[in-house]
User: Which sequence fits this backbone?
């Protein structure tokens, strides 16, 4: 596929997904925030369905040797980073995807959130080479390292390599757990509707 064709496919795909996100008002932050604070699960159910589809799709590709999943160590650095990112998204009132949509609609707060997302990423890129946690890339081996506060990594691809079991098996287990959560939400909504 030529570079122009790839750009056209990416443009069409991005436009369709953008339209769907804008019309559905889907937001990852709202999926969790609304469930915890307001006991509404519309976005939560959509997020669970999307995660089930993606899990089965990605692990199926890994099982047949296609795809190139990321490998990165999980450690205290990721936990702190995810906490800060999540806090920022809650304060911004939206996830990154819906922030883009709101900015496109002219929401001034979303534009500021995007600007400072870019500023944060730029500053991070400047210091990444100088302030590593752990101190050197060689410390990121994918194995448990208590002294370096790294938990290693274990995704479907590495599980497939270590156990010889196809990645789709682990994907099906994860999708079943997600489906169980989805069914629990549906039962809770049905019980709530019956009592009201």
Assistant:
């Amino acid at each position: 596929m030529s570079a122009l064709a790839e750009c056209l496919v990416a443009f069409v795909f991005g436009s369709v997904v953008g339209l769907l996100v804008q019309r559905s008002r889907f937001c990852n932050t709202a999926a969790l925030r609304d469930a915890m604070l307001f006991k509404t699960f519309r976005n939560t159910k959509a997020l669970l369905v999307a995660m089930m589809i993606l899990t089965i799709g990605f692990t199926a590709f890994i099982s047949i040797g296609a795809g190139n999943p990321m490998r990165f160590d999980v450690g205290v650095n990721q936990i702190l980073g995810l906490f800060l990112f999540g806090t920022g998204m809650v304060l911004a009132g939206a996830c990154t995807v819906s922030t883009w949509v709101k900015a496109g609609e002219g929401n001034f707060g979303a534009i500021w959130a995007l600007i400072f997302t870019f500023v944060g990423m730029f500053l991070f890129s400047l210091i990444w080479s100088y302030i590593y946690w752990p101190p050197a890339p060689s410390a990121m081996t994918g194995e448990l390292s208590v002294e370096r506060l790294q938990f290693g990594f274990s995704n479907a691809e590495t599980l497939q390599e270590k156990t010889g079991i196809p990645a789709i098996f682990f994907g099906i287990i994860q999708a079943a757990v997600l489906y169980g959560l989805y069914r629990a939400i549906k039962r809770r909504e049905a019980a709530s509707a019956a009592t009201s």
